[in-house]
Design brief:
Blueprint lengths: L8 H13 L2 H4 L6 H5 L6 H17 L8 H24 L6 H25 L6 H10 L16
Helix pairs in contact: 1-6, 4-5, 4-6, 5-6
């Protein structure tokens, strides 16, 4: 990607998934973040995807639910654990943009995080799902380019 697509495609996927899967009272919480979302770019989408994968693994690991899909979700997260290190390596060291397959993996991780949040929210209550904090964290990953250039320091 060019590093200039705005808003961030992964944050767009996140917002769309919340809008499609969460109850209306949760969806309404997106409005507060609209301006910040619109200012994002795709520059940090690799880090955003990895954070969503980690977040979903954390949320899935914190709970055991009787939901019929929970076993499948946890198994998918186990696969994420096995693949995210390789993806992280590629994202951090490949240079020159992200390979297309990693863009697909990133989208899958974002959608999986929202699916995990939905299952936990429906089974334990939405107060057990800090999805809005995750959104704020993802938006905050945007590099500060107010000086007109690239960020001064590389991402951690």
């Amino acid at each position: 990607m060019s590093g200039r697509e705005s808003p961030s495609p992964l944050i767009t996927v996140f917002v769309r998934a919340v809008s499609e899967q969460f109850p209306p009272e949760q969806q309404q919480r997106l409005a507060v973040h609209r301006a910040a979302i619109d200012r994002t770019t795709d520059r940090e989408d690799g880090r955003r995807a990895l954070r969503c994968a980690h977040w979903a693994i954390e949320i899935a690991g914190d709970h055991e639910l009787p939901h019929p899909e929970w076993r499948r979700i946890k198994e998918a997260h186990e696969l994420w654990k096995e693949t995210w290190l390789g993806a992280e390596f590629a994202l951090m060291f490949e240079g020159g943009g992200r390979p297309a397959p990693l863009e697909d993996v990133g989208t899958e991780w974002v959608e999986g995080a929202i699916e995990t949040a939905r299952v936990v929210g429906e089974n334990l209550g939405w107060d057990h799902v800090p999805w809005e904090e995750l959104l704020v964290e993802l938006v905050a990953m945007e590099p500060d380019t107010t000086s007109g250039g690239e960020p001064d320091t590389p991402p951690p």
